[in-house]
Amino acid sequence: TRAFVSHRAVMAAATGDTPAGKPRVVIAGAGVIGASTAYHLAANHGMRCTLYDQKGAGCAASGKAGGFLALDWCDGSPVGELARVSFAMHEELAKTLSLDSYRRLTCEAVAVDERAVVAAGGVAKPGNKKLERVQWADIGAVASRPMGTEETIAQVHPKRLTEAFLAAANEKVGTEVVLGKVEGVVADEVTGEVTGVVVDGETVPADVVVVAMGPWTHRASTWAPGMPKVILGQKYHAVLMRPERVLTQAVFFQGLGDPEFYPRGDGDVYVCAYPDSPNVVDEEPGEVEVRPDAVQRLVDVARAVSSEMKNAEVNGSGQSCHLPITQDGMPVMGAVPGTDGLYVATGHSCWGILNSPASGAAMAELIATGSVTCVKNFDAFSPKRFAR
Questions:
Q1: 261-303 pLDDT, tens per residue?
Q2: Please, are residues 24 and 208 in contact by the beta-carbon 8 Å criterion?
């Protein structure tokens, strides 16, 4: 258990160590969005908080995502500014938090001839030449196009980022993660102000509550009238494989089900594809089923498209996670209408790791000052849009 994770009683965690004049802040969920919010509350505003999570820091998608970062892939959408601000912040955070998993890399889209891939059996033809700019995808590749250079593409290990946010917040102001299940919010019947949360059946005093439970935020839909009613999860499987050399090019294949490959600096290559349809998540955090057939399909396609991946070692038995999705596909972040002191931050879909720095900084600024200046048009993410 990490130093910032506590098993102590929930009441003790909530009531102690909050400086005079500072609100008692509770964050439900210790994924990357909750962790970033906690870090920026500590670093930018000197505010301590307590995060409650059933399984601990980064136990779901925040620990099992690919960690792929793109500067401009969200341009032209409401998330474009958030992504650009976050991309720049990642480089600075890597230095501040000593994240050795952060690095720049290139990215290529590679179209494959599926019949040629099957016929090759994972073996490149003698004298076969890779496509220009393509580093390692050498079987059945018929065309490619660049999707980003080291100026616009980067990566970070999501679990290590999440833990680094929390460790730094703990060091700065004593922020802690406490193991426990948040089951509801308590508000004053007259004023409508938050007075606490219910954790494992106990009421914990709080002045501010941030619901950052990823796809499990749907469980909070009845906690207050203004909470979003529909938060879905889209399940992805992934597997880590390790070829003989460290690769430096991410590849998005076109064909064979469009698998995605994210090589990491430690030598692992993160392979994912074949998502399930979005649905209400009924699996428990940290207990998401990994289907062996889905993992084997990823291993098979990895071995088929590259001679370097053919004999790559499979690291572990695969993994799966649910990406949180809202009704309109945009994150939902901000103050929950009708309940003073209640906030929500979720729904980042496949861009949760990328957008975590600016999302956390904005949420922290909103909680501390009542407005957001670090991200333009942050109101576009407000939960008010679902109450119209």
A1: 999 999 999 999 999 999 999 999 999 999 999 999 999 999 9
A2: yes
Name the DSSP class of 314: E
Q: Which of 28, 46, 45 is nearest to 178 (CA)?
A: 28
> Nearest Cα to 77, choosing from 274, 354, 321?
354
Nearest to 332 by CA among 229, 180, 184: 229
> What is the side-by-side strand order in the sheet with 103-104?
68-70, 153-155, 103-104
Could you give the 3-state DSSP secondary structure of residue 349?
Answer: helix
Residue 143 three-state SS: strand
CB atoms within 10 A of CB 159: 19
Predicted confidence (pLDDT) per residue in 118-135, tens digit: 888 766 665 566 788 899
Q: Which of 256, 159, 212 is nearest to 49 (CA)?
A: 212
How long a stretch of residues is the chain?
388
Give 215's DSSP letter.
G
Alpha carbons 244 and 126: distance in angstroms, whole number = 20
Reported as type and span, the H/E element at residue 239 is strand 232-242
316 neighbors 32 (Cβ within 8 angstroms)? no
**Within 13 Å, how many C-alpha atoms sit on residue 376's CB side?**
7
Q: Is residue 171 within 8 Å of 1, Cβ to Cβ? A: no
Q: pLDDT above 70 covers what percent of the chain?
A: 92
Q: What string of DSSP letters covers 29-96?
A: --SHHHHHHHHHHHHHH---EEEEESS-TT-SHHHHS--EEESSTTTTSTTHHHHHHHHHHHHHHHHH
For residue 295, give the 3-state DSSP assignment: helix
SS3 103: strand
Q: Give the whole-angstrom CA distance, residue 168 versus residue 37.
A: 12
- Amino acid in position 173: V
Give 172's contacts (C-beta < 8 A, 6+ positions apart): 42, 43, 46
List C-alpha distances in Å: 116 to 88, 109, 111, 126. 41, 18, 12, 14
In sequence order, the β-bridge partners of residue 319 are 238
Distance between CA atoms of residues 191 and 188, nearest Å? 6
With beta carbons less than 8 A apart as the criterion, state whether 296 and 203 touch: no
Q: Which two tokens stand for residue 78?
A: 């409401």
Query: Tell me, what amino acid is at 218?
Result: H
Residue with tokens 């203004």: 226
